[in-house]
Amino acid sequence: MRAYYLRSADGGTVLEPREVALPEPGPSQMRVRVRAAGLNRGELMGAPASPKAAGMDAAGEVDAVGAGVAQFATGARVMGRCPGAFADYALIDAREAFAVPERLSWEEAAAVPIAFLVVYDMLVAQGRLKAGEWLLVTGVTSGVGVAALQTAKALGARVIGTSGSAAKLERLKPLGLDLALATRRPDFAAAVLEATGGKGANLCVNNVGGSVFGECLRALAYEGRLAVVGYLDGVLRAELDLDALHAKRLTLFGVSNKLRSAEQRAATARGFAADVLPMLADGRIRPLIDRVYPLDELPAAKARMEADQHVGKIVVRN
Questions:
Q1: Pick from 212, 228, 254: which residue ends a domain?
Q2: Cα radius of gyration (the chain)
Q3: In angstroms, rounded to a whole number, what is the distance separating the alpha carbons of residues 76 and 109?
Q4: Cα separation of 176 and 6, whole Å?
Q5: Cβ neighbours of 67 (radius 10 Å)
Q6: With 80 as the cut, is the pLDDT of residue 46 above it?
Q7: Average pLDDT of the chain, as a whole number
Q8: Which of 124, 86, 122 minimizes the C-alpha distance to 275?
Q9: How far apart are CA 140 and CA 152, in angstroms?
Q10: Where a domain ends, among 254, 271, 306?
């Protein structure tokens, strides 16, 4: 079968097609005929130590099940976290899989798992975002940024977003973006404070990285929360204003699956299924697809992401 592998090259990464054997599902796993898969910047930015099967989430039909899988039968339409998703077939842990809502296309379903599981983790599980609160999202036009905007609006929150592109921000206004700040610089705290009546944002999602970390702290309200999820700027260090952290009783937390166990990921999946999946099923949230590429054009899809041309999710279709 076809499968793409990611390898290091010239300080970055490249994708190369290979012919590989059909994977066999182990305990708690399902083999899925991949119909669509989403691109995720975090995977494409990191240079792997050795070539690895590429892709992180997918949607498709269950083709075979391993021992202990009872919740899905062959032929079921599923989506989920899926290592090696850029392939004809891939394996999904049944504990992290979801039935595809009827109203979602394959492409929309493939845009859900990683982005919206991350958003559930930082907005609901850790961020405790409530109706009427203010959410600040730096890099709001990214896949995770758009998913955060959509989920926050469905929860009844108000959203401020930053982006270096005013044109991209315009595309998000129909999704309910309350305040668009066209900037890549750490210069937005004053505007956030003004919009919130001097109080600041209750929760901030920092997709950009260390270059705006301090400004995110300055933009937070009393008992505000800051989620660190991305490094679009490549800056992994920042100064921490301990006085602000102390005086405003702030909470800082990271959002990553790198060190989590299978059961910890499964617990997040259960929370997502209870709190966010119904919003996707009834149409309150509809994933924003930037562009769809055939699987054979995956390198072109990667180039579009690396050029920062997209708004929402880039998807490949089998």
A1: 254
A2: 19
A3: 13
A4: 36
A5: 9
A6: no
A7: 96
A8: 124
A9: 12
A10: 254
